[in-house]
Amino acid sequence: MPHDNIRPSARFNDEDSNTSPNPGFDSVLDARLSRRGLLRGSAALGGAAALGGCATMAGPAAPVSALGFAPVARTLADQVTVPAGYTARVIYALGDPLTAATPAFSNDGTDVDYGNRAGDHHDGIEWFGMDAAGQPSDSFASRGLLAMNHEATTDEKLSSFFIHANGGTASLPRPAAEIDKELMIHGISVVEVQTDGKAWATKPGSAFNRRITTMTPVAIHGPARGSEHLMTKYSPDGTQARGTLNNCGTGRTPWGTFISGEENWFGYFFRDAKDDDARKKDKQVQALNRYGRKAGAASRHGWESGGTADTYARWNNSAVGTSAKDDFRNEMNTFGYIVEIDPYDKSQALRKRTALGRLGHENATFARAVAGQPVVAYMGDDARGEYIYKFVSTAKWDPADARPANRLAAGDKYLDKGTLYVARFKADGSGEWLELSMNNPVIAGSSYFEFRNEADIAVFTRLAADAVGATKMDRPEWGGVNPKNGEVYITLTNNSARTPATTDAANPRAYVDMKGSKEQKGNVNGHIVRLAEKQPADAAFLWDIYLFAAQADADKTTVNLSNLSDGNDLSSPDGLVFSQATGVCWIQTDDGAYTDTTNCMLLAALPGQRGDGASRTLSYGDKKVTTHVGRPQTAATLKRFLVGPKGAEITGITETPDGRAIFVNIQHAGENTKMSDVNDPSKYESQWPSNAGYGAGKRPRSATIVITKNDGGVIGT
């Protein structure tokens, strides 16, 4: 998950390629109308203490009406801090073995065989329960599979330096042996976990354990299958691809599969400085620039420099052959999709669902499936000035598909055919979903970009959204659907490019915030927008801004519009997940603006409903922007639940069906360590989780923790 910060690698995670002329929605509207470890209390996280037990069978917990814990204070400590009465423990970290034959992780840069180990940068995560016989179960709470993303890796220049003994190579060409490691630490993992009533642990020898990497075979599904834009040397017919990359947010489908969003994948590819000329009048030049891959720009890791084998050559996106079937000019077009797997079944290849569009996907969150109605998913495109999307299936939901004989076949039914929409927000608190299909004459007749068929829209989705005049947003990230009322929440994490001149009702703040002596500008702290629809498939919605992130001491008339206090202030909301057991809304941060005061955090919220607040008007000289703000937050409706270690982002969260255990991912602790200090632990920004008693060595590792209440109760109560 990208954030504005000082890391050299941030340039690959902070895309800003939307140079379309799309204005704020007021002028769009005018134009279109004419056309129609162990932690007790605040102690450090440890790695070996007993936890409160989970029942083997459990029904959902009752909805939480009050948050029953004292908020955690802001802290810069290099530890995970949770409320008094809770315990947390590391259970799955970078390099942990997934097979009984894989050696224990030494954490000194000499480890290999990452295809059988936990990947890096743990991100979105989902729970898939299993009964005693190893069959899928929605009620068992003591045994299950954790499916999770491994988004990226910690790098300063080219090298993923913590996994190489000497830090690796920071110049080109890079050694193939280093690249081989890095290719395998990205992707997805599935790991079995179980509790004996005292402690949760992974099962390294489980037959369900699985790694998916940048090299795993992939089946292309949906309208782009067979498209000329997906034809490569590897798959001349454009139906297959390899791997998944920069996987960020996750989701669980109504039919019980795992989905993952490919987010900031563009920076992994290289294009020769003369590639625009080599492609001549190919319309893909416009698309490549729109998706952030300019000719001559350096790639994030230099994987293309490892040799002539396809393993490395595929990362060179240049047109060097006589046709697309002779090179990898289209390789980048095989990334940027929602990926679906069946965590219970290794035998089936993962699918890329192109009908949901090609974006910087964060996650996809589903509306409650209703018999006879379409399946609906909401998505954000995580880059500055990008858009919010919705997919509506052609097939109508059949409740029998909640437990299908073939779960991925059910995915084919609901996710391969449907209609993609993009959101336009109006100043009066209403909005509309704009259809992205050849049925929309704006797209069919576009002079902005030539769309010839539905495959073009699936591959070049951003350009289709540009063409119809969608509303540019402040980096849309995770979406979540409130199980109580079906309202949709989408985090807008921040936007350093937002200015007073470009503010609008849905993105109304542009201000200056000081971090020490450094001046930060734009929508520094981010916000969360909330949408309400009469029916999920409707073309119209109402909206307000549920939460404005801010420091507690910020001006309450211009910045701290949600009345945040010391116990719940935050910056850069990113992950957002509603508990299905309790209804608590969990909000995670990925921040670079407030980190002089506190590390990133996890908060628990009890949201109301759209329209429960009032309108507010902000002034920027002669310009006035009226927005719609949810009710002010209080200590009863929003509390800080966890603060992470130094340099870390708080990423995915999932739970057991009874709500008595939550699993939280901690990503890139110590990411601001200098590559030159890789062999000097005293200079690491963080030594977590080894400083909490977990694993060998002192190099920081991304990891999954499990949190329980000491009295065995439901989390949050």
Would you kindly provide a written description of the structure presented here, covering whatever features stand out?
This protein has 9 helices and 34 strands. The longest helix has 10 residues, at 176-185. Strand 29 and strand 30 (623-629) form a beta hairpin. Residues 1-9 and 25-56 have low confidence and may be disordered. The two termini are 29 Å apart. With 717 residues, it is mainly beta.
Strand content: 25-35%
User: Strand tally, please?
Assistant: 34
Q: Report low-confidence residues grouped into runs of 5 or more.
A: 1-9, 25-56
What's the overall average pLDDT, rounded?
Answer: 93
Q: What's the Cα radius of gyration?
A: 24 Å
- Structural class by sheet pairing and helices: mainly beta
Largest sheet: 9 strands, antiparallel
Give the neighbour order of strands across the main sheet. 13-14-16-17-18-25-24-21-20
Q: Outline, from the CA principal axes?
A: globular
- End-to-end separation in angstroms reads 29 Å
User: Helicity level, as a percent range?
Assistant: under 10%
Number of helices, where a helix is a run of at least 4 consecutive DSSP H or I residues: 9
